[in-house]
Amino acid sequence: MQNLTGIFTKIKGLQWLVVSLLMMASCDKTPEQIIAETPQMPDSNLVGMFIANEGNFQWGNASLSFYNPASGLVQTDIYKANNGKGIGDVLQSICSFQDKLYLVVNNSQKISVLNAKNWKEIHTITGFNSPRYFLPVNTQKAYVSDLYENAVYVLNLNTQQISGKINCKGWTEEMVLVNNKAFVCGVESPYVYVINTANDQLEDSLEIGFGAQYMRKDLANNIWVLSNGKAPILPCLTKINAAGKIALQLWFKNIDMPRRLEINEQKNQLFWINKDVYTLSVNDTLLPNQALITAGGKNFYTLGYEPYNKEILVSDAKDFVQKSEVFRYNLLGQLRGSFHTQINTGNFYAKQP
User: Fold this and answer.
1) Which of these, 206, 156, 157, 163, lies nearest to 181 by C-alpha position?
2) Residue range 28-51, pLDDT digits in tens
3) Helices vs. strands in the chain: H and E counts, helices first
4) Do residues 85 and 77 lie in contact, with contact meaning Cβ atoms separated by under 8 Å?
5) Which tens digits make up the pLDDT trace of 307-319?
């Protein structure tokens, strides 16, 4: 809830007290947090949100949390609790595939592979330069983007090893799969790269402005790309249709810094952070003028969509040293509650039952 400052008269003070009580009544209880030393055993049918806490760069204090929206319970540092060691340096992203949980640990140059049912580590994939995101292509193969490699890695999921590379200029980031093609964000270029997944060859480069970093697929298989821009090129939200053609571009102002694109479970509503949180229907053709959620004094760092209660999760990184706080909002932008995680909560991943 936003902090309001100013001098109120007695009447205004009473009015504010009533409003404050009503607002607090609308928020449910803060979820209980379970410390890592006494974790609940994971349930293979449990729904919830995995939460990647990046930690501090070169501190080796990344951690993994789990939030169960059905019970409101939050388990912190579940990797350490179930494996007796820390994850490593900067937990960038999470992906679940074929009963395995893939934790991409950026500055440790590895992917930790966990049994998704008991959260025990079963493999460690090494040989990366600085991995970012994991994209399952089929049951045999996955792609991994990288900060420094000038390529996308090809993983053999049978051997859990790197089997090849696909050259892409510069830093590659988020990826989506549409019609047997992988679309890859090129952060240091004007392009979204298109890879033919049948032969692992770069097939096309779509010019979208500059600095594509975030990407989501909607219900019609359109791809939405949020790019950072680079002066004089403005940040942009680009819609690429299922045929791989640019269908719409919505340009931000030069003072804007949009980031962290997300989509709801129906794949028809987008969300992103531009200091505050904004939303857009996939059928809209103009950027919104009004924020859905106002940050106030919070340092909004990342956001996710929690499909079980249909809530938007937004992390407040505070000063990037103390623990993050995750705020829960409904689709009207109303605060429903909050809970604490660990340092620099940077990524959410919805676990399916």
Assistant:
1) 206
2) 444 545 444 455 566 556 779 999
3) 2, 28
4) no
5) 999 999 999 999 9
Rounded Cα distance, 196 and 212, in Å: 19
Sheet holding 311-316, edge to edge: 300-306, 311-316, 323-329, 335-343
> Structure pTM?
0.88
**Using CA atoms, how far apart are residues 125 and 36, in angstroms rounded to an integer?**
25
Q: Do you know the residue count of the chain?
A: 353
Both structure tokens of 117: 């049912």
Asked if 159 contacts 143 with a C-beta cutoff of 8 angstroms, the reply is: no
For the record, the structure tokens of 256 come out as: 């804007």
Q: For the range 14-21, what are the long-range contacts, defined as Cβ-Cβ under 8 Å and sequence gap of 24 or more?
A: none
Handedness of CA 142, 143, 146, 152 (dihedral sign): positive
Q: Which of 225, 168, 169, 233 is closest to 202 using CA atoms? A: 168
Token pair belonging to 149: 């490699």
C-alpha span between 241 and 179 (Å, rounded): 11
Taking the C-alpha atoms of residue 301 and residue 281, their distance in angstroms, rounded to an integer, is 22
Phi/psi at 213 (5° precision): -135, -35
- 3-state SS class at 285: coil
Q: Which one, of 171, 151, 161, lies nearest residue 110 by Cα?
A: 161
CA–CA distance, 244 with 179 (Å, rounded to integer): 10
The model's confidence at residue 20, banded by pLDDT at 50, 70 and 90, is very low
Task: Pull the structure tokens for residue 203.
Answer: 């097939």
C-beta separation of 50 from 79 below 8 A: no
Name every residue whose Cβ is closer than 8 Å to that of residue 61 and which is 6 or more positions away in sequence.
Answer: 55, 86, 342, 343
